[in-house]
Specification:
Chain A has 260 residues and is α/β, with parallel strands linked by helices. Chain A contains eight helices and ten strands. Chain A has a single domain, classed as Rossmann fold. In chain A, strands 6-7-8-3-9-10 form a six-stranded mixed β-sheet, sandwiched between helices. A four-stranded antiparallel β-sheet of chain A has the order 2-1-4-5, with helices on one face. The mean pLDDT of chain A is 91. The chains are: A alpha/beta (260), B alpha/beta (484).
Chain lengths: 260, 484
Amino acid sequence: MDKKKYMLKINDLKAGIEDVEILKGINLSVNKGEVHAIMGPNGSGKSTLSAVIAGNETYEVNSGSILFDGEDLLDLDPDQRAHKGVFLSFQYPVEIPGISVSNFIKAAITEKRKVLGLGPISAKELLSSMKEKMELLSMKKGYLSRNMNEGFSGGEKKRNEIFQMAMLEPKLAILDETDSGLDIDALRIVANGVNKLKSKENATIIITHYQRLLDYIVPDFVHVLHNGRIIKSGGKELAHELEEKGYDWVTKEADEKWGY
Amino acid sequence: MKKEELSEDELLDQVTSTEYKYGFTTKMDSDTIPKGLSEDVVRLISKKKNEPEWMLKYRLEAYKIWLSMEEPDWANVKYKKPNYQDIIYYSAPQPKKKLDSLDDLDPELKKTFDKLGISVNEQKRLSNVAVDIVMDSVSVATSFKSTLAKLGIIFCSISEAIQEHPELVKRYLGTVVPSGDNFFSALNAAVFSDGSFCYIPKGSKCPMELSTYFRINEAGTGQFERTLLIADEGSYVSYLEGCTAPQRDENQLHAAVVELIALDNAEIKYSTVQNWYPGNKDGIGGVFNFVTKRGICHKNSKISWTQVETGSAVTWKYPSCILKGDNSVGEFFSVAVTNNFQQADTGTKMIHLGKNSKSTIIAKGICAGKSDGSYRGLVHISKGAKNSRNFSQCDSLLMGDKCGSHTFPYIEVKNNSSQVEHEATTSKIGEDQIFYCNQRGIGTEEAIALIVNGYCKDVLNQLPMEFAVEAQKLLEISLEGSVG
């Protein structure tokens, strides 16, 4: 098989913290232009998977590979992965006191451009691009000069994540529980933003607990993660089925197969 | 304007290298007296400087007081006390002939200034900074003297002021920091060989930043400079000092005294970017920085201290304000960084005497490596200082688990109409913060710089623009390699 074919190809990925294995052999392929949803009950390993793809060193990778455009991400540092075009929208975005949103984004863009051999972006260009993206996400005036996530509400933090995604234009965006903590209006704004940023060239992985977000961002594929393994994959209708019937009917079958 | 941009770049270039950049020495003949301290040495210093009798008397009195004092050991620092007989108390770069213009400057000296990023020429005219440079013990160049003189502003070396403006020096010297104030101030009063003097006349607003650059050059020398700054009624001045020293295996002593006098309705802004050699990674060498800085505020006046401390092996320093006048204001903004084996015990004293006096203290400590940083501050509100207010905020940021941070706040309130607030936080640079930055493509070193800059923002904002840039770069350098 041509490994270049997939944007992301995860092969038998096993990872965990210290002696506890959380991911027990993940296989997942994502093509550009696709939206994948990863669903599953609490503690199934969803956030671990996103953290491992992004390179969080809290987790130890025991085996497997994560090919991104044919290159194994496991050989790269987190910032190098970001430069390749991997973006993670955090479930719990971190505060960075004293650093404004605009300065933070400028630093991120400057570092990426450095790797690409480009000089710093002009202030004018940056500002007009920020304004455009702010409109897309209905950000309030004065947002750019607020300090990163400091005193942000839950919804503001999530919108701030999507704003950064819009500015950094990643190839692969992983949205980790982006819907949690959002009211219905904010959910709509965020989903609308994500939809507008979708293209034939990029891909999105949505990690979620509920099917709610998937009403707005319609996935091409839905995977059920349970106990560190993808136990079922299907089209968008699988999400509805899960919403109706819960997770038990799929997990039971898997538990019998793998033992739990 | 092209020229100015260039110098900015050069400056950035210089301060972004990892090693201590200022660790060079300049080969120059110098006029040095033998090491050791005695009454004869004090007399010799005074004689070499051709000082009037009253000045010699002042020094001798201070020397006597010093003999009766003991080196303080209450600070939270550990060091081997210097042998005061093993220090050279006077070293002046040669030739010492008086310079009419900076073009006459010794070429070697000029090279030194260029390396320091101080160009005592047209470039500074563009950036509006007048500079006085003190090398080892002697002030060697003051720029812009004539421009300032037109406004009645005196900016010169203190030696010159003793000769040319004795009435001002006599009137104010030692009034804020008396010789007997402490062990180091007594030593300084006895042996100081130069420093800066500044007088802003009534109602004048000094049109440019005044700046002093201090540099220790000769081996085995101590630097004891004396700064006296007087802002007459209704005047304003912003003053900056920078400090560098060569890399040496032995500890060099720096015991300066700075006195500020803000008369009624005057304002003084005093900023320091301190980058004395901090010693190497194993804690060998570095400057002992034992400095007494104090200002007095008369009615409606304001003194603001801003300091960014990244250098020195041991720091012992408490820039303070005596808020004597009603409605006077004292401010202290500080960032103190310690890395490797550095130790710093620094803070401020705000002495409220006047009614409605106000003070603000923002102290930010950053500790990395095996270093120790302490904030020590006193807020004293006397009985007569009715309706006074103080706000103090002391934060510390720890990097790694081998450093220590301590806070010693002293609060004394003698009336019941005043208000004192104290806030303190201790935090660590979180791995989650660094990972978050990494995920956005910002490497770990840059992430730390970013987080530290954010943490220090309230203080850095107080610095004049071009020095804020320099200070930011200094912070980055001094913390490089401190995580991971």
